[in-house]
Amino acid sequence: MKGTLSPALILLTILAYFLMLIGISWLTSRKADSKDFYLAGRKAPWWLVAIGMVGASMSGVTFISIPGAIGAGGLNRDFSYLQVVFGYMVGYLVIATVLMPMYYRLNLTSIYSYLGKRFGFYSNKTGAAFFLLSRVIGASFRLFLVAMVLHQFVLGIPPLNVPFWATVFVTIVLIWVYTFRGGIKTIVWTDAVQTVMFITAVVATIVFIGQAIGEDLGGLVAAVQKSQYSKIFFLEGGWGDPNNFFKQFFSGALITIVMTGLDQDMMQKNLACRNIRDAQKNMFTFSIILFVTNLIFLTLGALLYLYAAHTAMELPAKSDYLYPTIALQHLSPVVGLVFMIGLIAAAYSSADSALTALTTSFCVDFLNMEDNGKPEPQNRRTRVWVHIGFSLVLMLAILVFKALNNDAVINELFKAAGYTYGPLLGLFTFGMLTKYQIKDKWVIAVCLAAPVLTWIIVDLAAKYWNFQFGFLNLALNGLLTILGLWLISIRSDKMVLSNE
User: Are 422 and 480 in contact (CB under 8 A)?
Assistant: First the structure.
């Protein structure tokens, strides 16, 4: 059944949704100060953080790209992405038992302060700078996906014909409005609401697909199991296969450690819990919910392709457009509205906290706001301007990605992460597992050289040895960083901070 949604109806629904978020922001940000903005006064309920982290981890990238990638025949085909999710579980265990206890013991606001305590001034700034670069890339890709869909199906078509840059501007402004005052104190609530919203959207889509093809829940599950898309484990293709189980599993673990455990955005929510026990309960609960949610998303992806085959519809040129095309143009108008809310919720639950984390890291690591001795009103004004500045940076980055995007957004995101998070993986690993001090001023050179060498090695391996690193470029990047740090190291008998 073809949808009859008008752009005006979609916009009114989105407006109502953001008015709700602004209302939550107003309720939670009254009398908020810097401690509330950065860490919610360390009073955030662990269960609320766990729910919100699901949305922050998955985002609009998972919402559209993972279902679309299932039938695209390349990376993350069929249910192979579940191999990565199994690796995620290992990564979350490492974060909960190794990294978070250290962060709480050192009472950190920015986790990159550890690098300053362990190695020195330049290490702190280098780690924070790589986070800023990494998170700008990640958040921009996610927001680009939302802006792309809004422009393709709502704002960029008659009668509105809004230019893409204006769509991006509106997307960024809406985030800024409900985060600039309360920061993390607001986000732990809005992210929880948005997680519930986008999971509801996926479940609703599955139900409506079942109605459209005449199957109940049991019939849908059976159809997915019997389909060509149900394969999970890829063991026979060897290391040259981008979906090889071992590559996907170990990459998933590493991706989780660096993109959650070494990421100020994700750790800022965990550090907002009352104590380490609450933070660990949050992490374990979150990992279970995340696994189930990913399984639901993969099921949706298979059903989207089964629906397309059932109705003989023409598949869109880009796999990222499959879900929005079916939801907005083939199913009930109710599904279209639910889809748009789900997409907005999925993307904004990660982008809003990213903007807050970027602001936090810059204020703490570069402007030293925790110890600068300036009055709170002055620091608050500076923080607002930093918040505005990063909003503009995200907008410019999205416009650049509009011109460069050639692949499924999920794959591009992880490719970028392999190069920008690798130095962080190397810095933290070297700091926690050795007693060496380093020549601090040389850190920036090492951390710039490692991604360049990784790119060269990955390119040569693909051209001359037909070996695809895939997400394992992250491990290579980290190892090269560790090797570089060892070359500039100085043996010290002093116990490192992480073991104190």
Answer: yes
414 residue type, one letter:
F
Rg of the chain over Cα atoms, rounded to whole angstroms, equals 22
Q: pTM value?
A: 0.83
490 beta partners: 437
What CATH number is associated with residue 190? 1.20.1730.10
492 found inside a domain? no
78-116 as b/e: b if 16+ CB within 10 A: bbbbbbbbbbbbbbbbbbbeebbebbbeeebbbbbbbbb
pLDDT at 495: 45
CA distance 84 to 16: 36
CB 237 within 8 A of CB 243: yes
- What are the tokens at 65? 């790209």
Spans in the chain with pLDDT lower than 50: 1, 3, 410, 495, 498-500
Could you give the CA distance from residue 339 to residue 312 in angstroms, rounded to a whole number? 22
Cis peptide, bond prior to residue 333, ω within 30 of zero: no
Judge whether 345 and 18 are in contact, CB under 8 Å.
Answer: no
Buried/exposed code over 186-197 (b: 16+ C-beta within 10 A; e: otherwise): bbbbbbbbbbeb
pLDDT in tens, 465-484: 777 776 678 888 999 999 99
Rounded to whole angstroms, the Cα distance separating 477 from 483 reads 10
- Which residue range forms the structural domain that includes residue 138? 7-406
Contact 402, 167 (CB under 8 A): no
Residue type, 477: N
Position 421, amino acid: Y
Q: What CA–CA distances, in Å, run from 482 to 71, 258, 331, 427?
A: 38, 15, 52, 7
Tell me if 290 is assigned to some domain. Answer: yes
Domain count, the chain: 1
pLDDT at 410: 47
pLDDT at res. 378: 87
Residue 470 in domain: no
The answer to the question of residue 358 being in a domain is yes
Q: Would you say 262 and 421 are in contact if contact means Cβ atoms under 8 Å apart?
A: yes
376-388 burial string, b = 16+ CB within 10 Å, else e? eeebbebbeebbe
Integer angstrom CA distances of residue 248 from 367, 414, 468, 475: 39, 12, 12, 12
Beta strands in 187-254 (DSSP E): none
Cα-Cα-Cα-Cα dihedral sign, residues 268, 270, 271, 273: positive
pLDDT tens column, 237-247: 776 677 888 88
Three-state SS at 359: helix
Neighbours of 465 (CB within 10 A): 9
161: left (phi over 0), alpha (psi -120 to 50) or beta: left
Q: What is the DSSP letter of 471?
A: G
Report the interhelical angle of 245-256 vs 81-94 (nearest 10°): 40
Please count the CA atoms within 13 angstroms of the CA of 150 that sit on its side-chain side.
Answer: 29
